[in-house]
Amino acid sequence: TVAVSSRLDAIRSVYGLSVARSLIKIDASDNDLSSSVFEMDGFISNSNYIAKKITMVLFINDRLVECAALKRAIEIVYAATLPKASKPFIYLSIILPPEHVDVNVHPTKREVSLLNQEVIIEKIQSAVESKLRNSNVARTFEEQTVDSTPPSPISVSKASPINPSPPGSKLQKVPVNKMVRTDALEPVGRLHAYLQIKPTSQPEKNYSLTSIRSSIRQRRNPKETADLTSIQELINDIDCSCHSGLLDIVRNCIYIGMADDVCALLQHNTHLYLANVVNLSKELMYQQVLQRFAHFNAIQLSDPAPLPELIMLALREEDLDAQGSENDDLKARIAEMNTELLKQKAEMLEEYFCINIHPNGN
């Protein structure tokens, strides 16, 4: 190479810019006469470098040589720390006493062996592993363009093609590596992105999607909670026992799909998690009820439901002897007593649970 200002510039001129910008500086040394004496510095590829073959440039006392044991040891560190498909680029310059180098391993003197080789390799291995683990937090990926236009809904069944495609044309299948998952904060992957708003002739009924979203958000998250001390204590218990790391994962995760009947696969940053949907749903509903206590949404029934009939249905559902009718009188009395009790508590049920009970027992 022509004279350059640094080793990194020399690597850039020989191996290219893509290699040079993926390198991190590394150094290690030992001055213990009982174990090993050496100084090492150089560059190793970080987690952004991808290659199918390992490249190792090794200088020992400014002589270009090979050391199979050192090469194998560094490759093991990369295989354990980074994806298997990625092979590293390594440039190392090691300075050690000349008498500690055995150059008679190979006829061409290309390969060498070192005194206290195992100790030196172990120290270099530790330095490489430490650098790699620190470099993994700053990983970059090539950006792929995503078509933000929503696909038109498929309304034609496979069995009865109404509009067959012209002969010779093939449906273009998107390759797996081109499929892009969206960011948790972006609305592209949410359902309302695919909502088809039909134009209507009556302008007053053409509600904007923004107003619909805001109304739904207000219903889901009422600003005020119940002023009952017991409810506030339960909410405070939840807030105090909240796990900040888990909250961040649930809040900013991306849903990938169901792994089985119970567990869902979620992505958060560069990690994948299995989440128990049943347990998550129970906890979510419990916390929603506490937050919305006394502010529930009421459902207006077209025909008011009579309480005695509802209680009788529940009693029959719990009755093991469904065929027997001798307990019907007892059930009717229980239903009548409970109806009267609920009518007495109508004001509380209305205020706390938005359950409206009419004086006639509906």
From TrEMBL:
<keyword id="KW-0234">DNA repair</keyword>
<feature type="domain" description="DNA mismatch repair protein S5">
    <location>
        <begin position="11"/>
        <end position="133"/>
    </location>
</feature>
<dbReference type="GO" id="GO:0032389">
    <property type="term" value="C:MutLalpha complex"/>
</dbReference>
<keyword id="KW-0539">Nucleus</keyword>
<dbReference type="GO" id="GO:0005524">
    <property type="term" value="F:ATP binding"/>
</dbReference>
<dbReference type="InterPro" id="IPR020568">
    <property type="entry name" value="Ribosomal_Su5_D2-typ_SF"/>
</dbReference>
<comment type="similarity">
    <text>Belongs to the DNA mismatch repair MutL/HexB family.</text>
</comment>
<keyword id="KW-0175">Coiled coil</keyword>
<dbReference type="GO" id="GO:0140664">
    <property type="term" value="F:ATP-dependent DNA damage sensor activity"/>
</dbReference>
<feature type="coiled-coil region">
    <location>
        <begin position="320"/>
        <end position="347"/>
    </location>
</feature>
<dbReference type="Pfam" id="PF16413">
    <property type="entry name" value="Mlh1_C"/>
</dbReference>
<dbReference type="GO" id="GO:0016887">
    <property type="term" value="F:ATP hydrolysis activity"/>
</dbReference>
<feature type="compositionally biased region" description="Polar residues">
    <location>
        <begin position="146"/>
        <end position="162"/>
    </location>
</feature>
<dbReference type="GO" id="GO:0006298">
    <property type="term" value="P:mismatch repair"/>
</dbReference>
<protein>
    <submittedName>
        <fullName>MutL-like protein 1</fullName>
    </submittedName>
</protein>
<dbReference type="InterPro" id="IPR014721">
    <property type="entry name" value="Ribsml_uS5_D2-typ_fold_subgr"/>
</dbReference>
<dbReference type="GO" id="GO:0030983">
    <property type="term" value="F:mismatched DNA binding"/>
</dbReference>
<dbReference type="InterPro" id="IPR038973">
    <property type="entry name" value="MutL/Mlh/Pms-like"/>
</dbReference>
<feature type="region of interest" description="Disordered">
    <location>
        <begin position="141"/>
        <end position="172"/>
    </location>
</feature>
<dbReference type="InterPro" id="IPR032189">
    <property type="entry name" value="Mlh1_C"/>
</dbReference>
<dbReference type="InterPro" id="IPR013507">
    <property type="entry name" value="DNA_mismatch_S5_2-like"/>
</dbReference>
<keyword id="KW-0227">DNA damage</keyword>
<dbReference type="Pfam" id="PF01119">
    <property type="entry name" value="DNA_mis_repair"/>
</dbReference>
